[in-house]
Amino acid sequence: MDIVLVPGFWLDASSWDAVTPPLVEAGHRVHPLTLPGLDSRDAPRAGIGLRDHIDFVAAQVDALDGDVVLVGHSGGGAVIHGVADVRPDRLARNVYVDSGPPAEGQAINEELPADGDDIPLPPWDEFMEMDLVDLDEHLRADFIARAIPQPKAVATEGITLGDDRRLDVPATIICCEFPSQVLRDAIEAGEPWVSELARVRQVEYVDLPTGHWPQFTRPVELSRLIVEALERH
């Protein structure tokens, strides 16, 4: 199976380096991506929005033969859901890593402080404690060394959805910061932030207790959960 790995904010393809080998060993073809504007700290980011990231990943799907599995971490979850909207017939499964599908018009995060067209990685004290679980000093230093400013418009541009067939793409939600029961309870309560997830017709929930960046803090376990999700289906 072709697995396309879509990173979250401030990260490029190398953020999946510790996750990729077990996926390859399991027999999959793995394609970690660097999204537009994340090539380097000096890359131009003006005018790059969420639709550009969606179109970029859709083009990667088009370049592959057969069904594709998309894995999206954090903000990458919005990207892979956007691809499900434009390529619903090409996707075997979407795997959301500490993320989920946004609803029509929803932005990823409009509150992150920007510097012009860039959103730099904020200081650690601006994150919630649950974000940073297991992210020790060594991992934090590595994160800072690799962090690339996020294009502002990717975070603030509301997603545009138009094809309800996206809801037929099976989804696996890997829950890290809080247990999957929180999502189930929110859906049961009709919370707006899970309204799109509630509409997806085939969803499974998997728990991986750690912070927001399991590709750094629990890479082997994350790889195993992805492999197991594909084996189950």
Describe this structure in words.
The protein is an alpha/beta fold and 233 residues long. It is built from 9 helices and 8 strands. The protein is globular and about 40 Å long. The N and C termini lie close together (12 Å). The relative contact order is 0.19. The mean pLDDT is 97. It holds the Pfam family Abhydrolase_6. One of its GO terms (molecular function) is catalytic activity. It comes from Aeromicrobium choanae. This is Pimeloyl-ACP methyl ester carboxylesterase.
Q: Can you give me a brief rundown of this structure?
A:
The protein is an alpha/beta fold.
Question: Count of helices?
Answer: 9
Radius of gyration: 16 Å
The largest pleated sheet is described as:
6 strands, parallel
CATH class: Alpha Beta
Number of domains: 1
Task: Classify the beta-strand content into a percent band.
Answer: 15-25%
Named CATH architecture? 3-Layer(aba) Sandwich
Which structural category fits the helices and strands? alpha/beta
- CATH topological fold name: Rossmann fold
Strand order of the largest sheet: 2-1-3-4-7-8
Compute the average pLDDT. Answer: 97
Instruction: Spell out the CATH superfamily.
Output: Alpha/Beta hydrolase fold, catalytic domain
Q: Strand-and-helix sequence, N→C? A: EHEHEHEEHEHEHHEHH
Shape: globular
Distance between the termini: 12 Å
What is the number of E strands? 8
Helical content (DSSP H or I, runs of 4+): 25-40%
Quaternary status: single chain
Query: Which stretches are low in confidence, meaning pLDDT under 50 for 5 or more residues running?
Result: none
